[in-house]
Write a structure and sequence with these properties.
The complex is a heterodimer.
Chain A: E1 5-12, H1 17-30, E2 34-40, E3 49-57, E4 70-73, H2 76-81, E5 91-94, E6 111-114, H3 117-124, H4 130-142, H5 147-157, H6 162-182, E7 199-202, H7 203-213, E8 216-221, H8 228-237, E9 244-247, H9 251-263, E10 267-272, H10 274-289, E11 294-300, H11 317-322, E12 331-333, H12 338-355, E13 358-364, H13 365-369, E14 371-374, E15 431-433, H14 447-467, E16 473-476, E17 482-487, H15 491-503, E18 508-513, E19 515-517, H16 523-528, E20 531-536, H17 542-551, E21 556-559, H18 568-579, H19 581-590
Chain B: H1 23-37, E1 45-49, H2 57-60, E2 64-67, H3 73-83, E3 88-94, H4 95-101, H5 103-112, E4 116-122, H6 157-163, E5 168-173, H7 177-189, E6 193-199, H8 211-217, E7 218-220, H9 231-239, E8 244-251, H10 258-261, H11 280-284
Parallel strand pairs in B: 1-2, 1-3, 3-4, 4-6, 5-6, 7-8
Antiparallel strand pairs in B: 5-8
Helix pairs in contact in B: 1-7, 4-5
Classes of the chains: A alpha/beta, B alpha/beta.
The structure holds thiamine diphosphate and iron/sulfur cluster.
Iron/sulfur cluster is lined by residues 18-19, 22, 24, 53, 123, 127, 202-205 of chain B.
Chain lengths: 591, 287
C-alpha cells in the first residue's frame, strides 16, 4: 500500500464537485494530514466533466501522480475519464440506482461500491446532500474519522443555519453506515491523523494574501480565468486594511488605474491571464518610462488566443520578458510553489518600489487551482519586509530641486533610481510624460538627454543585479552528471520525480529557477553537467531557449502542452527516456 | 493649500508648441484659472492627459501630472483619485483621444462618477496626426483619410454621458475666456465626475468648425431659461444636434462620488514597514 492516498470526486460542472472536494480537503488538513489538490475542469458553468482531486499523506506532498485510489463517480464519464489511473485496489463509489449508472464497467479489477447516494440523502433531508453521503462512504473506506468532516461541514454550511449543518452531518453518517453494513470487505486503506494544524490555500489566494501583507492597497482587474481568484480574494479583505479592489471595464483600464494609484503613492497591483496581458502591453512602456512601481501578475493559461482557458500552460514567458514596444527595463519573477506565490509577491512589491519599474509576477493555472497545506508559520507575517525605496518627503525634497526649485523626479542617479515624491508633497509638483523626457519629466528629443535617460533606466537592472540575490532553489545531488532545470509550478512534480529516479539509480541534480529576469547565471552549472534537460509546460521551450542563449550550449527539453500539468511519475519516466532515448524508441516502435 | 495661489502658478516654464491661434491656449488658461479659483495649488493637483495636441497640456501646466498613452487618461485619473481622495484630479484630452480610442473608458468613467473633472478639447479633428476625421467630425468633412467625408454621423458625447448616468455635463468654448473658466470651475466644484466638452478650434486642419462658426452659432445657456437640474430639459438640449450651447447642460445635485460610496477616506500612500497589524488573521482564515 502506498503511503499516500489519492482521492477524487468527479461529475458534471454544477454538481457541487468543487465544494465537496474542498470540504474533504479541509477535513484532511484539519486532521493534520498534508493535502495537494488539483482540478480537471472545462470552460463551462453547467455540464461538462469536472473533477476535484486530492492527494493526501502525513508527509508533505508536492505534486499529483497518475494513480487514483478512491473515486467518487457521480457520472459514468468520471470513470472513463480516470480509467488509466485506476488499479486493482481502487475503490469506486457510485450510485447504482441512478438510471445513467446502471451498466457501469469497472476497469482494472477495481472494487465498485454501489451506494444509493441520492436515496440516502433524501432520507437525511434532501437529495442535494448526495455528495456528502458519498464523503461519508469514503470516510468508511479509508477509515478516516468522520468527526473530522464535521468541522468542515460546519465551515461550509454554518452560514446557512445549524439545521443544514446537522442534516449534512447526518447525511455523511448515512453514507458511512451504509458501507459498514452492506460491505463486509476489509479495505486496505487507512488515514492516520496527526496533531498538526495546517492551513489550506491555493496559489491565487497566496498571491492575494502576499499583496495585502506587502501593503498593496489598490487592485484593479478584469475577471479572467485563472486570475480571478486573486481579485476575489482581495475583494473585501484589502478594504479591512484601507484598500480597495476595482473591477475595471477592461484590462487596458485596469492597468492604467493601477498605474494612477501607484503614482498617487499606493502600492498597487493588477492580475490577469494571457489575453489580458496582451491588452495591457501598451502600458508596460508607460509604467517603465514614467518610473512607476507596479506589480503586474500574469496567471498563465493555455494560449494562443483564447486557447484553453481552463488548462495549464507556461506559454507567456516571452511575452512578459519581451512584451511591449521599445526597450523596457523590468523584472520578471515566477514563483515555483504555492507558498512562494506569497513570498515572491511580497518581493515583487519591494522590487517595484526600490527600482520604480514594472514587475511581472508570473504564475500559472496549475498553481492557481492547487490547494496545498502549510504550517501557518510558512506565512510568518513578522518576516514580511516593506522597502519603499527612495521616497522623499517635504524635509528631504530640497536636495532634489534644481536651481530654479524644480523637482528632478527623473534625476539620472548613479544607481538609476531617482527620488519619488508622492503627490501632495510640497515643492514636489512635476510632470511625467511617456514621451522621452528630461530629468524634470518634460518631453525632449535632445539626443544627449535621450541617451542619458535610457541609460539611467537600464542602470536599475544593473543595480538590482548587484544588490539583490536572483538565485535558484536546488534539489537532488549537486554533483550529479544530469542536470534538470525548470521554472514555475513544475518544481513539486520534479522534486518527487527525483525520488522516483533515485530509487531506480538515476542520480540527478535539479535546479528550480524563480527569477526569469534578471536571472541567475547558470553557466557553471550547465557546463559541469553532462546532460542538461529543461522542463516546462509549453511547446517551444521558451526557458530552454534562454538558457541556451545565456550559456551558449545546447540543452535537452521536456515540454508538455496538452493542457495538463506535469505529474511526478510521468516526469520521471520522461527524464529516463531523455537520458536513454533508445529505450523509448523501441517502446514506440513496439506499439 | 495656500489662498494666495495665482493661476500663473499652474503654468510651467515650457513654451507651448501649439500652432499660433490654436484653441487649446484658451482652454488651458481657463483650466489654470479654475484650479486657482477653487483654492488648489500645484502640489495638491494631479493632471492626467491623453495623447494629441490637446494631450500636451500637462507639459505646459505645473502640477503633479502624467501624460499617458492614447485614450487611457481617465482610468489613470480614477486610480489617482481613489488612492488619494485629497488630491484635486483633472483629466484632459482631445475628441479623438476621449471619444474614439478612449470611448469605452469615457462611458465607464461617467458611470463611476469619481470626483474629478474631465476637460475634452473638441476640435472635431485629429490635430497631432495632421488632420484626419475624428469621431466628432461632420459626416461630410473631407480629410486625407476620408476624402468624401466619414459618411457616418458624429458622436454626441453629451448624449453618451447623459445616457450613461452623468451627474455633470457642460459645454464650453475656449475663446470665451471668462465663461470657459467659470464652467470648468463648476465642473471642479461638482461632487462627482464633471464633464466639460470644450470647443477648442484647430486653426490648421479644420476650416469648417472655426472660431467664426462657433462664435456665430453658440448660445449661452445663461441667457436662456434652461434649468440644468431638469434632466428632461437637458436631454432635449443635448439632442438638438444642429445647436451649439455653452454652459452647464445638466447637473445632478444629489451626486455622491464613487470613492465616497466606497468609503475611501484617506490616502493609501501610508503603509506600515512590515505586514499590517492583524495580518496573521489572513493566514488563520485558511484553517
Ligand atoms: C495607440 C496609438 N494610436 C495612434 C496614435 C497616434 N495619435 C496620436 S494623437 C492622435 C489623434 C489625436 O486626436 P485628438 O484626440 O482629437 O487630439 P488633437 O490632436 O486634435 O488635440 C493619434 C491617432 C497613438 N499615439 N497611439
Ligand atoms: S494642429 Fe490644430 S490642434 Fe494641433 S496645435 Fe495646431 S491648431 Fe492646435
Amino acid at each position: 500500500m502506498p503511503e499516500d492516498l489519492n482521492w477524487a470526486i468527479g461529475g458534471e460542472a454544477g454538481d457541487g464537485i468543487d465544494s465537496t472536494g474542498k470540504i474533504f480537503a479541509q477535513a484532511l488538513s484539519r486532521a493534520g494530514r498534508h493535502v495537494f489538490t488539483s482540478k480537471d475542469f472545462a470552460s463551462r458553468i453547467r455540464g461538462g466533466y469536472t473533477a476535484y482531486k486530492v492527494r493526501t499523506s502525513v508527509d508533505r506532498v508536492e505534486s499529483v501522480v497518475d494513480r487514483l485510489d478512491i473515486l467518487i463517480a457521480l457520472t459514468e464519464r468520471t470513470i472513463h475519464e480516470n480509467e488509466d489511473e485506476l488499479h486493482e485496489d481502487s475503490v469506486i463509489i457510485y450510485d447504482g440506482e441512478r438510471s445513467t449508472m446502471q451498466d457501469v464497467e469497472v476497469p482494472h479489477g477495481a472494487t465498485a461500491l454501489e451506494v444509493p447516494l441520492k436515496r440516502l440523502a433524501e432520507d437525511a433531508g434532501g437529495a442535494i446532500m448526495l455528495n456528502v453521503v458519498a464523503l461519508g462512504a469514503a470516510c468508511e473506506v479509508t477509515s478516516f474519522p468522520i468527526e473530522n468532516l464535521d468541522e468542515s461541514l460546519q465551515k461550509r454550511f454554518g452560514d446557512k443555519g445549524e439545521a443544514i449543518v446537522e442534516n449534512n452531518k447526518k447525511a455523511a453518517r448515512m453514507g458511512q453506515e451504509y458501507v459498514q453494513e452492506e460491505y463486509d470487505e476489509e479495505f486496505d486503506y487507512s488515514m492516520e491523523t496527526t496533531d498538526a494544524d495546517y492551513v489550506l490555500l491555493n496559489g491565487d489566494e497566496a498571491i492575494g494574501m502576499g499583496a495585502i501583507a506587502a501593503g498593496c492597497r489598490f487592485y484593479a482587474g478584469y475577471p479572467i480565468t485563472p486570475a480571478t481568484d486573486v481579485m476575489e480574494y482581495m475583494t473585501g479583505r484589502v478594504d479591512q486594511f484601507g484598500g480597495k479592489v476595482v473591477q475595471a471595464e477592461d484590462e487596458l483600464s485596469a492597468i492604467n488605474m493601477a498605474l494612477g494609484a501607484a503614482r498617487a503613492g499606493a502600492r498597487a497591483m493588477t492580475a490577469t491571464s494571457g489575453p489580458g496581458i496582451d491588452l495591457m502591453t501598451e502600458t508596460f512602456g508607460l509604467v517603465a518610462t514614467s518610473e512607476t512601481p507596479l506589480v503586474i501578475c500574469d496567471v498563465m493559461r493555455s494560449g494562443p488566443s483564447t486557447g484553453m482557458p481552463t488548462k495549464q500552460e507556461q506559454g507567456d514567458l516571452n511575452m512578459t520578458l519581451y512584451g511591449g514596444h521599445g526597450e523596457i527595463p523590468r523584472f520578471v519573477v515566477a514563483p515555483t510553489t504555492v507558498s512562494e506565490c506569497f513570498w515572491k509577491t511580497v518581493e515583487a512589491f519591494n522590487l517595484a518600489e526600490k527600482y520604480q519599474t514594472p514587475v511581472f509576477l508570473v504564475s500559472d493555472l496549475a498553481m492557481a487551482v492547487t490547494e496545498q497545506t502549510f504550517s501557518p508559520e510558512t506565512f510568518d507575517m513578522d518576516e514580511v519586509e516593506v522597502d519603499r525605496g527612495k521616497v522623499v518627503d517635504e524635509d528631504e525634497i530640497g536636495a532634489w530641486l534644481d536651481e530654479q526649485g524644480r523637482f528632478q523626479a527623473h534625476f539620472p542617479a548613479a544607481d538609476g533610481v531617482s527620488p519619488r515624491a508622492f503627490p501632495g508633497t510640497a515643492d514636489g509638483a512635476h510632470m511625467t510624460t511617456g514621451l522621452e523626457h528630461d530629468e524634470l519629466g518634460r518631453r525632449t528629443e535632445d539626443t544627449d538627454v535621450r541617451i542619458e535617460q535610457v541609460d539611467k533606466r537600464q542602470r536599475k537592472v544593473e543595480t538590482a543585479r548587484e544588490q539583490e540575490e536572483f538565485d535558484y532553489r536546488e534539489f537532488g545531488d549537486p554533483d550529479a552528471d544530469t542536470l534538470i532545470i525548470s521554472w514555475g509550478s513544475n518544481e513539486g512534480a520534479m522534486r518527487e520525480g527525483l525520488e522516483l529516479l533515485d530509487a531506480e539509480g538515476h542520480n540527478v541534480r535539479f535546479i528550480s529557477v524563480p527569477y526569469i529576469f534578471p536571472r541567475p547565471d547558470l553557466t557553471d552549472e550547465v557546463q559541469a553537467a553532462e546532460e542538461v534537460i529543461v522542463v516546462e509546460c509549453n511547446a517551444t521551450g521558451q526557458f530552454a531557449d534562454i538558457i541556451e542563449h545565456d550559456v551558449l550550449e545546447r540543452v535537452e527539453r521536456i515540454n508538455k502542452y496538452n493542457g495538463v500539468r506535469f505529474k511526478a511519475d510521468e516526469l520521471a519516466a520522461e527524464v529516463k527516456q531523455t537520458l536513454d532515448p533508445d529505450n523509448g524508441t523501441q517502446e514506440v516502435e513496439a506499439e | 493649500m495656500s489662498s494666495d495661489v495665482r493661476f500663473t502658478d499652474f503654468k510651467s516654464d515650457k513654451q507651448p508648441t501649439w500652432c499660433p491661434g490654436c484653441g487649446d491656449f484658451g482652454t488651458m488658461n481657463g483650466m489654470m484659472k479654475a484650479l486657482a479659483e477653487t483654492g488648489n495649488d500645484p502640489d495638491n493637483t494631479f493632471v492626467v492627459a491623453g495623447i494629441g495636441c490637446s494631450g500636451k497640456i500637462g507639459t505646459y501646466m505645473h502640477s503633479y501630472a502624467l501624460h499617458g498613452v492614447h485614450g487611457r487618461a481617465l482610468p489613470v485619473g480614477i486610480g489617482v483619485k481613489m488612492a488619494n481622495p485629497d488630491l484635486e484630479v483633472m483629466v484632459a484630452g482631445g475628441d479623438g483621444d476621449g471619444y474614439s480610442i478612449g470611448a469605452g473608458h469615457f462611458i465607464h468613467a461617467v458611470r463611476r462618477n469619481v470626483d474629478m473633472s474631465y476637460v475634452v478639447m473638441d476640435n472635431r479633428i485629429y490635430g497631432l496626426t495632421k488632420g484626419q476625421a475624428s469621431p466628432t467630425s461632420r459626416e461630410d468633412f473631407e480629410t486625407g483619410t476620408t476624402p468624401e467625408g466619414p459618411k457616418q454621423p458624429p458622436v454626441n458625447p453629451k448624449a453618451l454621458a447623459l445616457s450613461a448616468g452623468a451627474t455633470f455635463i457642460a459645454q464650453s468654448f475656449s475663446s470665451n475666456a471668462q465663461r470657459h473658466a467659470e464652467i470648468v470651475q463648476q465642473a471642479i466644484e461638482h461632487d462627482g465626475f464633471g464633464f466639460v466638452n470644450v470647443y477648442s478650434p484647430c486653426v490648421t486642419f479644420n476650416d469648417v468648425d472655426t472660431y467664426d462658426y462657433f462664435r456665430d452659432s453658440i448660445v449661452d445657456l445663461d441667457e436662456t431659461d434652461h434649468d440644468p437640474h431638469d434632466r428632461d430639459q437637458a436631454k432635449d438640449k443635448i439632442l438638438e444636434s444642429d445647436k451649439e450651447y455653452m454652459g452647464v447642460l445638466y447637473q445632478n445635485e444629489d451626486s455622491v462620488p464613487f470613492e465616497q460610496r466606497e468609503g475611501i477616506e484617506s490616502s493609501m500612500a501610508e503603509i506600515p514597514d512590515g505586514a499590517p497589524e492583524g495580518a496573521m488573521d489572513l493566514v488563520r482564515e485558511f484553517y
